[in-house]
Design a protein that fits this description.
287 residues, 44% helix, alpha/beta, single chain, 11 helices, binds S-adenosylmethionine, Rossmann fold, seven-stranded mixed sheet
Length: 287
Amino acid sequence: MSNDIVIEAWNTILFEKFSRFKYLFIEGYASISEEALKRHCPPIGSRVLDVGCGFGDCTMEIAKSIGEDGTATGVDCASNFIAECEQSAADDGIKNAHFFVADVEVDDLGGPYDEAFARFGTMFFNMPSLAMKNVRSALRPGGKFTQVVWRKREANPWLHDAELCVQGIVPVVSHDDTDAVHCGPGPFSMAGADMVSDMLKATGFEKIQFERFDTDICIGRNIEEAIQFALEIGPAGEIIRLAGEEGERLKGEVIVALEDVIGKFEKEDGLFWAPSSAWLITAYNPE
Ligand SMILES: C[S@@+](CC[C@H](N)C(=O)[O-])C[C@H]1O[C@@H](n2cnc3c(N)ncnc32)[C@H](O)[C@@H]1O
């Protein structure tokens, strides 16, 4: 199965959407990756691969934490993300962060690396077991892979409640029934601990562990922004986009319905904070 459609989506429509909400992603997700990197901190001087690095903020955090003798390397299938990573690292004078474009499922990832890390970078793989195998092959014997993925939909209402709301209004078009580019399996594809641990085991990893991490994340500074974020990002946004003209026609109705769904996340500081829940998964390449 070719990844061309998914790669095109990440390089075009999804890159544009993520860029529009970059500050929400970087600030919102930072608390989750900080916790993952606090619990699973790569040692000073290590060589670390950041899988599906997006804007490269984790790659650069890792680069700072491992010292100048270490190297953090971000890989992403979308050249637009990688161009932005290179610019940010140059602007911040981070010399031990490097980036390259590759499809993690099939391309040579270089290495060997002491560790691999992925914050929400592995849930969109068309064939995740190919990607896991490829990442393991790029690790040294005994190397560690730390992944952050979303737990179940119901524990992430900021995505799921908006998805349910949109599903009640807009006809759902499956990936198989459209020529439109799409993001791949989606944010909850790695939520099942049994399935993911079986997959990691089948691809040769050992000492597989899951730790749950729950935190509230900011999804907007006002109701308009929080609704726009829900409409453009995640499953709700994908349903509307894939529904084409019908999705556009029904958008007004969706926005009115989302006022209640998203409005409930407003907190005393005037910002919109929603509960989120992630797995921090660790696994090792055998010695
Ligand atoms: C949800 S974003 C996460 C980005 C970043 N890690 C973060 O936490 O902000 C998923 C990333 O995975 C990348 N991606 C998806 N499929 C990929 C593949 N087959 N190979 C490499 N990168 C891929 C996308 O381009 C995108 O940047």
